Amino acid sequence: MITLPTSHSWFPYSHHGQRKQAQVRLFCFHHAGGSASVFRSWQSSAFNNIEIWPVQLPGRENRFREAPLTELAVLIPQIKEAILPYLDRPFAFFGHSMGVMICFELARMLRKQHQLEPRHLFFSAFAEFQQPRPAPFYHLPEEQFIAVFQQRFEGFSSEVLASRELLDLCVPILRADFTLVQTYHYTPDEPFSCPITALGGSQDKVVNPDSLAAWQQHTQGRFLLHMFPGKHLFIQTAQESLLAYVSQALANDF
């Protein structure tokens, strides 16, 4: 029997993030190989003006029985249908790495089909689409795939690298996610009217400040660029200062 995704599938931690006094609902989209739980701790740390709603993609955690999707054209309409009922208050999107691409295209679809636009877009650790990018590696044999991933992102701990069982769990999801990212083709469109904030880690090997600054062309509104100490996953190591920055940026929108 096929199990169809429900709203709880997409937003498994939404009930933890609800705040009656919140000004804005912040939907958070995780990186390749990640999951909604990356943002779980944000809900207890976030300031009172924000509701944090982590978005769960198929193939992980509560959705592990579903196949991860490898085409953005398939994924975005599904997220749009799931998220529409929850855009009943001001909302914003935060995407980290792969999550940037997802929330960018989701925001464009919502604008085109429903005349809805986020109050703010936060693009974290992902170079603007037209910037130079390293060669794709999603199609490489497993040993090479792991080596390139580790060289660029340092995403596997030594424990995972030493465990065949853990690699067998992680690599298929990672490969699917990087297939989604590295087969994407950007098409130009009108810039957003909402503010865009680009965020990066000062020690990130893949994304540099210039490639983040290029996001400015995608907004007619305010553009901000801020770098935090840390590598590609600075959202975990600089969480407190990052959340304070995001909270203040959202407060400035009201």
Keywords, separated by commas or semicolons:
13% strand, alpha/beta, 39% helix, 6 strands, Rossmann fold, 254 residues
Write the layout of secondary structure elements.
Blueprint: H1 7-10, H2 14-17, E1 24-29, H3 42-45, E2 50-55, H4 72-83, E3 91-96, H5 98-114, E4 121-124, H6 142-153, H7 158-161, H8 164-182, E5 196-201, H9 209-213, E6 223-228, H10 234-237, H11 239-251
Parallel strand pairs: 1-2, 1-3, 3-4, 4-5, 5-6
Helix pairs in contact: 4-5
Helix content: 25-40%
CATH class: Alpha Beta
Main β sheet profile: 6 strands, parallel
Radius of gyration from CA coordinates? 17 Å
Outline the low-pLDDT stretches. Answer: none
Number of helices: 11
Number of strands: 6
Number of separate structural domains? 1
Order of helices and strands: HHEHEHEHEHHHEHEHH
Straight-line N-to-C gap: 47 Å
The fold-level CATH name is Rossmann fold
Average pLDDT: 92
Question: Based on the structure given, which CATH architecture is correct?
Answer: 3-Layer(aba) Sandwich
Spatial strand arrangement across the major sheet? 2-1-3-4-5-6
Please indicate the percent range of residues in DSSP E strands (runs of 2 or more).
5-15%
The CATH superfamily appears as Alpha/Beta hydrolase fold, catalytic domain
The coarse overall form would be globular
Strand pairing plus helix content: what structural class?
A: alpha/beta
